[in-house]
């Protein structure tokens, strides 16, 4: 670690980023940050299997600014970010990806926003989703729409995990004890004065994205469930609507029977209605179960990661 107080910590989650790590350090050095030797890199090796750890270890041996944490296995980006934030010692902390999709060239501008303009936090978002499969973009937009309308946090479309924040904000984030961590929501939820910067989508420097469509879809469900109980309330709403509808239908059947007698009929439609509501009920039992499962996982209080090695 460099001598004296650390001014800026860069928290970098890495999962199989061997081809990117050194290019990343180079790009940060090229960005022209004004904090002298009081910069630190906090690499979090999230159980990589491609030699990322060896590269980071070697880097740390020759560059005193480099520190790292290495997990015992892959615990996911959220856990990696948490470990990095805990380890970071800087007065100002930034989180960014190793693959250069979060351009380090923005760092000086972010630093200025905090030091000179007095913001607590600088967040970034992509202005385009160029190069992304259209289906993925479509689902992403629906997800942000849902979050905007049905959750406590108004997520910004295209928001990245590329952020810079003061020690105070880091403290607030670390004070949230939940196990199911949806970082994008947590940032929004803790508040503070945030400046938004936009930049066009950048392609990965090397390697491959770790997010399959399935992983992203599950991640979005996680986000909705972590910050909204609207799905649970939906059951009550639909239940009330169905009761009202059934009541009107009952009146109709009753009056019709009074006026025209009571011929037996309509069994097929009845069966359809029974199956429909059976399905609807199971669906909501499922939603209930999903929230229950989250509660169960929270009550276990399991650590979010295990560190195998650090410096
Ligand atoms: N990452 C991680 N653990 C994981 C998946 C990803 O630490 O389980 C890191 C990855 O190394 C990268 C960042 O999170 O630095 C973003 O991942 P990626 O570039 O694959 O996502 P994308 O940019 O495609 O959304
Ligand atoms: Mg990426």
How many beta strands in the DSSP annotation? 8
Separation of the first and last Cα atoms? 9 Å
Task: Give the CA-based shape.
Answer: elongated
Strand order across the biggest sheet?
Answer: 7-5-6-4-1-2-3-8
Strand content: 15-25%
Helix residue percentage: 40-55%
Largest sheet: 8 strands, mixed
Class per helix and strand makeup: alpha/beta
Order of helices and strands, N to C? Answer: EHEHEHEHEHEHHEHHHE
CA radius of gyration is 25 Å
Number of helical segments?
10
Describe what you observe in this structure:
The protein has 311 residues and is an alpha/beta fold. The chain is 51% helix and 15% strand. It has an eight-stranded mixed β-sheet, sandwiched between helices. The protein is elongated and about 95 Å long. The protein starts with 7 loop residues before the first strand and ends with a strand. The structure holds uridine-5'-diphosphate (UDP) and magnesium ion. Magnesium ion is lined by residues 97, 99, 101, 204, 209.
